[in-house]
Amino acid sequence: MDVVSDVIATMRVGRAKFRLSRREGEWGNRFGPYPGAGFHIVLRGSCWLLPPEGAATLLSAGDVVFLPHGAVHGMSSGPDRVAALLPLDPEPEVGSTHLPGLADTTAAGGTVLLCGAYRLDRGQVHPFLRALPEVVHLPAGPDRHPALAAVVELLAADLAHGKPGADAALPALLDLLLVHVLRAWLEESARGQSAGWCAALADPAVAAALNHLHRRPAHPWTVHELAREVGMSRTALARRFTQLVGRAPMAYLTWWRLSSAARILRDTQAPLSAVAAQVGYTSEFAFANAFKRQHGLAPGRFRRTAGGPPRVVTGEASAGP
């Protein structure tokens, strides 16, 4: 997988939760804190976002708000409501919700919101996610992020009409929403950035190097081979990669291998030897020592304490070096 796909796969736990609602008159709710990333989509009407810090922001139909760190915030009918005094909105429910009248564009006014959250494994958060601000506001517009707008339209249509298959379609659309939110943020934030993850993923050579490491983590990479793959000198790549990513290429590879191993241990029953080989270790002993240095627990104990029912894997793990 590429970097952004791996970031999403590693950090997310379970399915997104969401609630669809219509708000009328004077209203307000406080959301969070949440052990994950929250989102709001204004499907119809308008409302105000009361962020953790700073001034209230007016949201219009089609606007998307993403809160990657689950910060406390408010949503209300007016900018003068105090988020800290509003009743806490309970955790969104899982499942499809058909709101009668949403499909009828001539129906009475009010604001229609889709609010939800992606639960994250905070122990495995990629530094790319940590680089995101508390609030990402992506306003709607005729020339702004057409792919994201298309996903919002699809979500609105499924929620409005309650067609067969909605329980399968909505989770997939919410996953797609997360992908396009991150893409849109990258597009907007990469301009003028000289360091950090936005700059790293906008830099052709560094982005290519990252994708090589993510697509083939078990390969016995060296900086020399990686530099040859992306068409740079070894010294130039090492310097540029470290400047933008914050880690040297081989240090990042080690971190990524062990972060991937944590996800595999959490989600599967694969034997430790297979997990070790899948992330590039020929010795189970070397893998266990490296894993404990990074995560503070031996692999077996980590699996027992990670929580959640394991998923049985079939087939053989990819061979390591």
Mean pLDDT: 82
How many whole angstroms does the radius of gyration measure?
Answer: 22 Å
Number of strands: 9
How many helices? The count is: 12
Reading the helices and strands in chain order gives HEEEEEEEEHEHHHHHHHHHH
Distance between the termini: 19 Å
Oligomer kind: single chain
Parts with pLDDT < 50 across at least 5 consecutive residues: 93-106, 308-321
Largest beta sheet: strand ordering: 1-8-3-6-9
Tell me, what's the shape?
globular
Major sheet size, sense and barrel closure: 5 strands, antiparallel
Fraction of residues in helices? Answer: 40-55%
Structural class: alpha+beta
Strand percent estimate: 15-25%
Can you summarize this structure?
This protein has 321 residues and is α+β, with helices and mostly antiparallel strands. It is built from twelve helices and nine strands.
Structural overview:
- By secondary structure, the protein is of the alpha+beta class.
- It has twelve helices and nine strands.
- Strands 1-8-3-6-9 form a five-stranded antiparallel beta sheet, covered by helices on one side. A four-stranded antiparallel beta sheet has the order 2-7-4-5, with no helix packed on it.
Relevant terms:
321 residues; alpha+beta; five-stranded antiparallel β-sheet; four-stranded antiparallel β-sheet; globular
Task: Produce the secondary structure layout.
Layout: H1 3-11, E1 17-23, E2 28-31, E3 36-44, E4 46-50, E5 57-60, E6 64-67, E7 73-76, E8 111-119, H2 127-130, E9 136-138, H3 146-161, H4 166-189, H5 197-202, H6 204-215, H7 223-230, H8 234-245, H9 249-267, H10 272-278, H11 284-295, H12 299-306
